[in-house]
Amino acid sequence: MFVGIIRVRVSRDAKHPVKTTERSLELLEALRERDRAGVTELASTVEMGKSAVHNHLSTLEEHGYVIRESDGYRLSLKFLDLGGYLRSRMDLYRVAESEVDALARESGELVNLVVEEGGKVVYLRRSKGPQAVDLDTYVGRHVHMHSSALGKAILAQLPGERVEGIVDRHGLPGATPKTITDRATLAEELERSRERGFAVDDEERLEGLRCVAAPVRFAEDVTGAISVSAPTARMSDDWSENRFVEQVRGAANVIELNRYGV
């Protein structure tokens, strides 16, 4: 189990952050890391007095954001309610939902739809074909962009200064021995992705897994990306002959065209 001091990163735009809000957010992050925890454990984790922790938790409980149980506090499903509401309001999700499922059936593998937010990709929908492997992703999860085909598909369509800003903020941490961890190599990879119209992840986020992704554009803006992921045994690294490439690009094209029906 992760044990350490939780610190919420304050946005660069937060010129006058509210300390009590920061502390509540630290507690929410600590609960997310632990699944559930008691007042004493949380107080030690965030370096706050037990009475203050109890007051924050009581307020969050009163508003429905945490649940108190016999073995401690946990996050409530109100966050799922908020996330579900936000997702339902997104044009991309509404027009892509059926196409994600169709691609999963056609490919037989795991299909993901994401958007970029805050310099990371956020999973909006996952659909599993009959052969799909079960990965560590879930709807709502945020992951680094440079180590995933989905992230690189989006990065390749962004202005250079925006890409630099994302790298400045999040860095290029290594997830596997194949992860791109320097800016020059990433720039070359993004150029290749732009030229061929799709991006790849060759065991860069998870060893033994390959992924191919295509950007989704509404008008002139990149809105998100769609991908197919499969074990290396079922996905060739000969991208010119890889059957998933055209499947993913075709699905992205259908989503873009369906946008006009929203």
Task: Give a quick summary of the entry.
The chain is of the alpha+beta class and 262 residues long. It folds into two domains: 19-76, Winged helix-like DNA-binding domain superfamily/Winged helix DNA-binding domain (Arc Repressor Mutant, subunit A, Orthogonal Bundle); 83-261, GAF domain (Beta-Lactamase, 2-Layer Sandwich).
Provide an overview of this structure.
The structure is a single chain. This protein has 262 residues and is of the alpha+beta class. The protein has 2 domains: 19-76, Arc Repressor Mutant, subunit A (Orthogonal Bundle), CATH 1.10.10.10; 83-261, 2-Layer Sandwich (Beta-Lactamase). It is 43% helix and 21% strand. The chain has 9 helices and 9 strands. Strands 6-5-4-9-8-7 form a 6-stranded antiparallel beta sheet. Strands 1-3-2 form a 3-stranded antiparallel beta sheet. β7 and β8 (209-218) form a beta hairpin. α2 crosses α3 and α5 runs antiparallel to α9. It is globular.
Set out the fold topology.
Blueprint: H1 19-34, E1 36-37, H2 39-46, H3 50-62, E2 66-69, E3 72-75, H4 78-88, H5 91-107, E4 110-117, E5 120-128, E6 142-144, H6 149-155, H7 160-170, H8 183-196, E7 199-202, E8 209-218, E9 221-231, H9 243-258
